[in-house]
Amino acid sequence: MSVAPLRGGQARMDELLTTTLDVLKETGYERLTIDEVVSRVHASKATVYRRWPSKSALVVAAFVHAVSHLPAEYDTGSLRGDLLAGMDDLLNEMERLADVMAGLIDEKRRNEELATALREGFLDTRRQVAAGAFARARERGEIAPDADVEMLWQIAPALVMFRWLMMGESVPREEGHRLVDEVVLPLARAGRPVSAPATPPPPPPPRRRAPPSS
Amino acid sequence: MSVAPLRGGQARMDELLTTTLDVLKETGYERLTIDEVVSRVHASKATVYRRWPSKSALVVAAFVHAVSHLPAEYDTGSLRGDLLAGMDDLLNEMERLADVMAGLIDEKRRNEELATALREGFLDTRRQVAAGAFARARERGEIAPDADVEMLWQIAPALVMFRWLMMGESVPREEGHRLVDEVVLPLARAGRPVSAPATPPPPPPPRRRAPPSS
Amino acid sequence: MSVAPLRGGQARMDELLTTTLDVLKETGYERLTIDEVVSRVHASKATVYRRWPSKSALVVAAFVHAVSHLPAEYDTGSLRGDLLAGMDDLLNEMERLADVMAGLIDEKRRNEELATALREGFLDTRRQVAAGAFARARERGEIAPDADVEMLWQIAPALVMFRWLMMGESVPREEGHRLVDEVVLPLARAGRPVSAPATPPPPPPPRRRAPPSS
Amino acid sequence: MSVAPLRGGQARMDELLTTTLDVLKETGYERLTIDEVVSRVHASKATVYRRWPSKSALVVAAFVHAVSHLPAEYDTGSLRGDLLAGMDDLLNEMERLADVMAGLIDEKRRNEELATALREGFLDTRRQVAAGAFARARERGEIAPDADVEMLWQIAPALVMFRWLMMGESVPREEGHRLVDEVVLPLARAGRPVSAPATPPPPPPPRRRAPPSS
DNA sequence: TCATAAGCGAGACGGTACGTCGTGTCTTACG
DNA sequence: CGTAAGACACGACGTACCGTCTCGCTTATGA
Fold first, then answer.
1. Is A196 part of any domain?
2. DSSP, res D12
3. Quick one: which residue's CA is nearest to F19's C1'?
4. Residue D99 at interface with chain C, using a CB cutoff of 8 Å
5. What is this structure's pTM?
6. What is the CATH number of the domain that holds D31?
7. For residue D127, what is the domain's CATH number?
8. B108 lies in which domain range?
9. Is A73 helix (H, G, I), strand (E, B) or coil?
10. Is D157 in contact with C154 (Cβ distance < 8 A)?
11. B87 contacts B176 by C-beta, under 8 angstroms
């Protein structure tokens, strides 16, 4: 769906992409209009369609553009410092991109490139930040050797995005830090629980039907 | 934007709403068309617009319809049993509604009724299931008295929805159970950490700019 | 290229067609815009495209509509009276349609329906008017029995259209009448010349080339 | 709108003009595309627009180029010979230009230069050929002194163009010669009719309305 | 001899119109 | 009266062409 940038006009491309992102934030994917975007930068529709074959491709490119920076790396000397730094970065990114992401989650189901952009441009960054921090912490003996890093890295983005996208609330810095101190760090230090309780899992509950059929 | 059901035709309404949900799952909010819905049930557009004033109202109603059942309540006698039962219910609901939710997250930003439906019909159910379970567990002394219930209940839905909507993966039952056993239960039992480390939080990291401007 | 008229809205169709004809007269085929037409009658493009598949089809229909009346028939009792009446009718029609025709002559080359409309709706009317007049005149003995009717009927429209379309002048009534009196009537009365001069036709002249190649 | 030939590249100009004429014949004015023309001669749009300021100017120039040769003059010694020679020339020109003319009649209404080109490059040639022939014939006493030359010269082009452009038929040489022998020559020899019949012209017929309103 | 200029191809660009499609309103005819 | 059918005004989409423009490349001349 993406298109090799034209020879000239790199500046024009950036302008189009950042403007697209602005409009996206303001109005959401559905209400975004190509005409609105081009009129803001005094361009013409052809200039857009010469680069991207459709509205959705334009929007995807704008998102890719927005998340295409080098993954952050923090080495503050302590696990807590690293995680707090990563959390601050996450919160900044969400502030910038939460509205845009909301408009793209549906599109992502049908657009492999967008899915890749989200994964590689955003999620992998979170994973790498956390993975690096945990690796250094393990060498320093700060955490249990069997800590489940693959689960741990997801906790912060999952909860932050849940709050932004599902609950519709922003997440203040202190909340994010509490999340690190009261959830991530304790779990990392404790490692996996000694043994999963032997009680067999209960039978699956009866499936619900959509309408309150009773 | 809300529903004014006509006297007759309750069955017709259900048919329209469930069909709307089907189309929504298949094609997403943006690509859903009223004509597609009505042609599937051999109805006419007027029949839809007599009941709901817009496409978004129809879709909201379909979602409300889908989540409008009594909140589940599980009392299995143990916290773990309750949480696992709640997790199974959550996983079932996600299986049924993940695609639909993806299509509505953007619309929710502009549609208060949809936001309410999501909150009351879906999230509050999760909260109540967990809150009840934790309350009983505290009475039984199974968990620390200062366990942060408001944070704890969010962990399961946040991580499950993160996996479904962000990572694009479904969550198998065993994974859900591991989440209960290795994250929720340990945190509940431990309660809040003795004291937040006294180290002052690091200064906020420099904000990133969108393009790799270096 | 034509389309069965929709059930309702015959009035709307007429309105669209006459407005199309107006715009056509004012601006010519090339500069005519669907948006201009629909905005004049407060219609929408879809209303046009529901009936006619393209701009050219609309314009053709407007022309067909404009020439779709019963062929005139004049029986004034004398050949001269009949021809003058036919001439007046021709001049009226040209006044009404000359600008339109100018815009359609090119399109006619590619549009069989338009060609048919021009032939049957306009030219055949001329032929029939003249043919009837000459037939009655021959019975009355007013003209030579061997008068070449197939050539005679063409003279009036050919010269009038030549003046309108090629020379860009309108033809006043007196000029038209002079044409009848000084060209058509004399030729009709004289019949074919006694014998074609026996001189063999000269050899065809050398073909010219486009550029003044000398 | 007129031509300002660049210093070099006369050959290029000819190439462009003749190619334009070709495309014009094939597709008509409206469908002619600058891109089509330049791609056929491996030129670029700038090369066209450096010479002619618009599509219509290019097309006009192509037509002017096509009709810009010295007016023919035939002096065969007899009126009939002159007229037949002129007719052959006319038929040749129509063969070459009928399609092009069809595409330009509409444009001519709005383009004074094109109107001039048609008049001076094509029509005046016909007029001069005929006028010369008739002048010599009058001196020789071959025609009536009061023959209406201004009307006579138009008959041949009017009828030939009528056949080509309105009826959509080509005109074979014999038909053209018949036209000379049976129409033009008899009228020229007879001169104006002795007296216009005294019958007053009939009242103008009722104007027709566009739709068959009865 | 080489530099300065000019025409050239290529094609991006701002516009404008096209023809299509979906929304939400409305009318018509049927049961 | 509710409904199926579908016409309608509106407005966005994605395409095509016009006329302008900038870019290098080539060529052709003049210092």
1. no
2. H
3. D54
4. yes
5. 0.83
6. 1.10.10.60
7. 1.10.357.10
8. 69-190
9. coil
10. no
11. yes
